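Q&A log
Question type: sequence-to-structure
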Amino acid sequence: MQAKLTEQSVLGVSILIPVFNFNINQLVKNLTELKTILEIEIIIIDDCSTLSFDFNSKDSRVKYIKLEKNIGRSKIRNLLASYANYSHLLFLDCDVMPVSNNYLSNYEILLEKQNEVLYGGNLYNDSPPTNKYLILHWKAGKYKEQKTAIEREKKPYQSFITYNFIISKKIFLEMLFDENIIGYGHEDTKFGIDLQKKGVKITHIDNPVYHLGLNKASDIVEKSKEAVDNLCKLIISENIGKETKLYKSFAFLKKYKMLTIFSIITKIGSFLIYKNLYSKNPFLISLDILKLQRMVQNLRNYK
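Response status: OK
Response body:
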């Protein structure tokens, strides 16, 4: 199922939400009750969720589509944009919730000042989850992703994440997400770099959403590996991603001929690394080591 991409649109905001295995009823209810002078529509596409829930919004501004086959993170965002009727696109992940009742009003500045891309940021709950297997995700989000606009502006393109940003439809249709990136991770890295290459400015503001959906540590570990694999493919095929801290760590090891000793030490210590990651007090350095170990495996022979 696909609509025809067109730049012809009415002044307003199309809120685009890809869904996979998360109940979005409360998010949609919240969005429809927010005050704004903007014309809005909410377009939801369920990417063939394996967990079912009853979607119950009766608001005429809401359109819900369920796919019979999973198409992935990049393709579904491009597909969502193809249904948009308004001049600006607000991308939200399904497991978030606006922090402020003025959430949409805060984004009206985009139309008033003609900003091309606005990224509002995210927050995690102050208190860690009681389930120890969710603490790793909470820590990674709280201490790595959660940043103020001032902090993000220091590296505006590297700080870009896809789950709370607004972009003009015209610009998005000239860009689109790279559908060659399959699986989890770094489609936002590629999109941010594409914006930078085209000279499209990202303006960072403090208009966050709470990130509510926390994954188990075992899922975070597997997703992290998949994300590193995607990053390595971008580095090899397009020379993209060398500005990341992960690659710089790899380059340091390679420069000083430490790849082999690092691989031996981390292989011996793998049991302790995984034991820590699945504990009630996981260290983010353990996750960093695991990611670097994966990159070394992938790029050992990269020149």
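Response note: Residues 1-7 have pLDDT under 50 and may be disordered.
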